[in-house]
Amino acid sequence: MRTLKLKLCMFGTIAFLIALSTLFFAIILSLAGAPLLILAPIVVVFNLIQWLIAPYMIDALYGVREASPYQYPRLHEIVERLSRRSKIDKPKVMIARIPIPNAFAYGSPLTGSRVAVTEGLLDILDEEEVEAVIGHELGHLKHKDVHVMMFASVLPAIFYYVGYSLMMSAYFGGYSSRDRRNNASLLILIGMLSLVVYYIVSLVVLYLSRLREYYADTHSASVAEDGARNLAEALAKIVTYTGRYKARRGSTPEVGAFKALFISDPDTAARDVRELSRYGVTRDSELVRSIASREITWFERLMEIFSTHPNVVKRIRALLEMQ
Predict the structure, then answer these.
(1) Which of 20, 125, 172, 281 sits a CA distance of 20 to 30 A from 185?
(2) Catalytic positions, please?
C-alpha cells in the first residue's frame, strides 16, 4: 500500500511539474515572442551533455575508483545478490575516497550504471547496514531516478536561463527612445516572472527528489535482509558520525551540486547531531529510537522544503513503520 501511494504521488508530481512548466513557458512565449524557442533547446542540449559526462566529473571530484573484486569480495557479493533480487543488471561497484560514511548511485549511457560507497561507510557501518544502504542505491537505479531527476532538473534550468537572458538583454540593450525603453521594461518584467517560475518549479523538483528517496528506502526494505531496521540504523549512524565529523573539522568534504546523489544530506548532519547529543545513546537501536522520538521543529519543517532529502526523523519513522 505504501509503495502504491508513493508511485501515485510521484506520477502526480511529475505530471504537475510538466503541466506547470508548459503553462508558464507558453505564457512567457506569448509575452516575449518566438525567439525564446531558440534558447530552450540550447538549455536542453547543455543539460544532456552535462548528464553524459557527469560520471567522469563525479569520479574526479570524489576520488572514485572501481572496487576490485579481489580487494572487496564481500561488497561485490552484496551488490550482485541484491541486483538479482532487484531484477536489474549488476552495476559497476565503486569506492569513493571520502572519510564520511555515505553512498550514491549514478551513471549515464556512456558509463553505464554505477554504485559507489565511501571508505567511511565501510569503516563505520556493519555489513548488514552496508547491505541495506546498497539496497537503497539499487532502488534508485531500478526506478531510473538518475534519468528522471535529470529530466526534471532541465525544466527549472530553462526558466532560469530565459529570465537571466532577458534581463541582461534589457540591461545592456542601450535603449534610448520611449518605445525601446518600454520594450526593455517588458523584457525585465518577463525576466523577473521567469525567475519566479524558476524558484517555484525548483521547489516542486526538490519535493520529487524527497519522494524518490522514500521510494528507494522502500525498495531496500523489500530486497535486503531486515532492510527497514538495518537502513534505519545505517541512516542514524551516518547522520551522527557525519555531524560529529563536521563538529570536529569545522566542515565536511565538499559535495557541491552532487549532494542530491547521496543517501543522506551531509549539510544537515551537524544540525541533526546537535539535537541528538543530549540523549547520550550508545546502542544502534537506542540511537534509532531517540531519533524517531524527537520532535520536529517548525524550522526543520521549513528547511525540508528546500532540501533534496527528507527530514531524517520522518525518514526513520517511515522505516520503523515498515518493520
Answers:
(1) 20
(2) 137
